[in-house]
Amino acid sequence: MLEIKAGHHRVGIYPALGGAVGYWLCQDIPIFYPLINSHLAQNANQIIAAYPLIPYSNRIADGKFEFEGRHYQLDANALNGNDAIHGNAWEREWELDSFSKNSVLLSLDHDPTKNSKQQWPFAYKAQLKYTISVAGLSVRISFQNTDRCNQPVGLGFHPYFPRNGFVELGFTAKTVWNNGSNGLPEGRMSIDGRWAFDHMRALSKEEQLDNCYAGWDNFAFIRWKHLNAYLTMTSSPIFQHLVLFNPENQPYFTLEPATNMNNALNMPEISDRGLMILKPGQTVQGDILYSFSGS
């Protein structure tokens, strides 16, 4: 593990475990929640607090999709044993490109002719840069299509946040996709009632939520009242979606910026599904900034 730090902030990075964040602490307060029952932990027996979603966010139903007239079958890596989830970058060892006191740059080259085509059938190069400052943590994700054909791409970042008693959450979006019991979108709904966070409200531990918000305005606010602490999350406009997962009676929740909606590869009829089609050699980049303030 590598550690970067600035002021009271310390961040641990695992290049060998999918480029994941092992912890983010400010004066020993965990800002990301270290968790052992993440996907990575099951494979590597490690506690993980956040990880990148490359080259797509969330699920692909049954690991199957069609793109430009060809059918593809991916290995299932979701807990249900059926779906492909969150791409393959979190399953791979990343290379260390540079390392300083407050910054780490990692890279990953995926070649399906040398690695598993069932993980992802297209070649790509990804870069992941973590930078810590006295204000907070920035995450930059870069992706280049290194294949000879077009490639469908989605990017995202998956942090776990501690509940720590009374937590309030606020953000705005245009609509929300409600997930069914299989974790796949059932339908788009207007945002009101229990789905709405445009007026900041408490996120109850008894409130089971698993939803993908579309048309997110790239700003979210989290407040831990008992700690007199808050976090703002801002992102590049390419992250059009925001996944909120609030498991019932668990000590954590997730708030995941993503370019694409869940199962986007199998929903071509949705104009704002957020899937990017990159030509050979084309590159896309997105930034996420987490600013933390605590007493």
TrEMBL record:
Q: Which organism is it from?
A: Commensalibacter nepenthis
Protein name (record): Aldose 1-epimerase
Concerning SUPFAM superfamilies, the annotation shows:
Galactose mutarotase-like
Query: Entry's Pfam families?
Result: Aldose_epim
**Superkingdom field:** Bacteria
UniProt cross-references to Gene3D superfamilies, sorted A to Z: 2.70.98.10
- Classification via PANTHER family: ALDOSE-1-EPIMERASE, GALACTOSE MUTAROTASE
Q: Which InterPro entries match?
A: Aldose_1/G6P_1-epimerase, Gal_mutarotase_sf_dom, GH-type_carb-bd
Q: Which residues form a coiled coil?
A: none
